[in-house]
Each structure stands twice: as C-alpha cells, then as structure tokens.
Amino acid sequence: MKSIIGVGNALTDILAVLPNDSLLKKFHLPVGSMQLVDEETGAKIWQILKEQGVQYVAGGSAANAISGTSIFGMPSGFIGKVGDDELGSLFKSAQEVNGIKPILLKGKAASGQAMVFITPPSGERTFADYLGAALELSPEDLKPEYFRGYDYLHIEGYLVQNQELIRRAVEIGKGLGMTISLDLASYNIVESNNAFLHDVISHYVDIVFANELEAQSFTKLKPELAVREIAKICKIAVVKIGKDGSLIQSGSKFYRIKARPANIVDATGAGDLYAAGFLYAHANDMPLAICGEVGSIISAKVVEVVGPKVDVPRWKAAKQEIKAMMRAINPTL
User: Fold this and answer.
1) Facing residues of 113 across strands?
2) pLDDT for 222
3) Residue 194: its pLDDT value, please?
4) Which residues pair with 102 in a beta bridge?
5) Which of these, 51, 57, 48, 50, lies nearest to 14 by C-alpha position?
6) Closest CA to 231 of 213, 214, 206, 212
7) Where residue 33 falls among pLDDT bands split at 50, 70, 90?
8) Is there a contact between 260 and 118 (Cβ–Cβ < 8 Å)?
9) In whole angstroms, how far apart are CA 21 and each of 27, 44, 122, 192, 210?
10) Would you call 230 helix, strand, or coil by DSSP?
11) Are 132 and 111 in contact (CB under 8 A)?
12) Which of 11-15, 29-33, 277-281 has the lowest mean pLDDT?
C-alpha cells in the first residue's frame, strides 16, 4: 500500500452552530471565508461562544485529510507544530488514535485554534483562526528524513501565510519523487497569493483540489472552464461544486462526478475528506472517475454530522461501498 504524509496547521477546531450570521457581521467575518484573528479578538469571540455551547475536535485541513486516508487503511503521517500545552497533547493523541504517525514540533506560543461557525441554511462554514504555535512552523523545521518512505505529500493552502514553508515542502517532495497534492484552502487566500500559487503549482504540484469559489479566484473563470485552466499547469485538477458534485480534468480527459445524496447538517471537513478518498483511490491505481466517486461517497457522510469526523457507522457503510466499487476494477484489493 502506498503511503502519504501531510503538512499543515495543527489546530483544534472549536465548532459552533449559529442561528444566523449576526455574530459573523459583528466581527467582520465574511460568510465562507477564513480570517486570521489575533489573541484578543479570539478571546472576545470565545466569550460569546461559551454561552452557546461548542464542540472540540482535532482539526486543520491537511490533518483532516490525513485522518481520512489513515482510516481508509493508507499508512499516513503528519507534520505540524503545537504548543507545550493540553490542546497540543490532545491533538497528538487524536492523531495516534486514528493510526497517524505524527511529527509534532513544539512551538513557543499556545496551540492553534480554528473557530468554525456553521450557519443556515446550507451549513456554510466560516473560520476565525488563531494559529498560535502552528504559525511558527518554519522552512527550517522541514527535514528530508521526515518525508522519506512516503509516496504522497498533501499540503493545505492555509500554509501560504509562509510561502517559503510551502516552497520548502514541495522542493523536498519533488526531490524524493513524491506525488504532491495541494488543497487551495480558501478563496481569500487564493486572491492574496495568486501569483505564488500559480508558480508553485506549475513547477511542483501534481494534483490540485479547489472548491468553486477558490477555482474562480485562481482562474477568474466558472467551474467547467476553471478546471480545464488549472489542468494546464498540473497533472490533475479537481473542482468541487457542492451539491452539483465535482469536476475532474487531466490532460484532455474530463469527468463530471455527481454528489451523493446526504442529509446536510454541516459542511465542515467535506472538502478534506473528498481529498482523502480521492488520494486513497488514486494510490490504489483507480481510474480518475472512481477516485472522484470515492471522494464523493465519503464527503457525503461527513456533511451529515457536525464537525470533520465521520462516525463509525457511516465510516463502515462508506468503506463497504468503496471496497466493492474498487474490487469491481481490481479484485485483488
């Protein structure tokens, strides 16, 4: 079985289901965006959230995806930085429980937190992140020996606040012959770092994951044209279009994948687990259409629960369906 390692922000998600978007407006948080907040603003938001009830989950985009690949049975590792505190210890324990081999370096600041606001009617997610120690992960922290023995490298676009960190990661991955995937993360991040992302993708990245807004920010085009444009500078482009499924382009080959039926409660983690399913199937040499179907199956399960973690019954059902689909192509799996 091929293996994968992720690099990303080691964050604890603090999930809050809001009745409306008034709190977002109060703190100038555009719906669907990811905004970095300082410690003071984070504390003010936290005081309000405590009265409403919240849920804690070890998260971060790449970490969520790597959790998914590990549960699928793919040997998985993760590189990040946490504080020397309780949240850092909880993050490490959560990764180990899911079978991940964590390389968690210790920073000076407190462990990072991602406040995730889920708003009606579609369960749209808005993030206010205090990165803390996660922000301290530096290019110098990334050592080639951390990456050796892994076949895939998955990176989250949220790391682009440190462009040299991403460049260092992809240079190591490329040098080791790894298949490199990048999730564009958030439309506002893409807008602010468009030239850098174009450069890195065209020189280092094999697989790009983007949602509709991110793809539009990256290319200034609608999804069907955007996926073709992205595929011009990488091997495989994937654009996720919510309830309308996903689009995949590789060279001249184009695939439209339907979304699976789901009772949507919260969209948190849907894109991350789509990437996990896609990469797991890709690592098993599945056709791209099947990779998209696998991603669609598992992402439909996570939107039925609050937070980025699928419960055991849903995981079991998804894995049974996915195994049957993949064995129809390769009976040895």
Assistant:
1) 12, 130
2) 97
3) 96
4) 78
5) 57
6) 206
7) confident
8) no
9) 10, 17, 12, 24, 24
10) helix
11) yes
12) 11-15
Token code pair at residue 119: 């708003």
| Residues in CB range of 312: below 8 A, 6 or more apart | none
3-state helix/strand/coil string of 7-61: ECCCEEEEEEECCCCHHHHHCCCCCCCEEECCHHHHHHHHHHHHCCCCEEEEECH
Instruction: Assign 50 a pLDDT band (cuts: 50, 70, 90).
Output: confident
Among residues 242, 253, 250, which one has the least CA distance to residue 299? 242
Collapse the DSSP code of 181 into the 3-class scheme (helix H, G, I; strand E, B; otherwise coil) and give the result: strand
- 3-state DSSP call for residue 304? coil
Cα–Cα distances (Å) from 35 to 42, 117, 139, 188, in that order, read: 11, 12, 23, 9
Please name the helix (run of DSSP H) or strand (run of DSSP E) that holds residue 225, with its range, or none: helix 223-231
Which among 280, 281, 207 has a CA at the least distance from the CA of 240?
A: 207
Closest CA to 114 of 68, 65, 49: 49
Structural tokens at position 163: 């462009």
Euclidean distance between CA atoms 333 and 323, whole angstroms: 8
Q: How many CB atoms lie within 10 A of CB 332?
A: 4
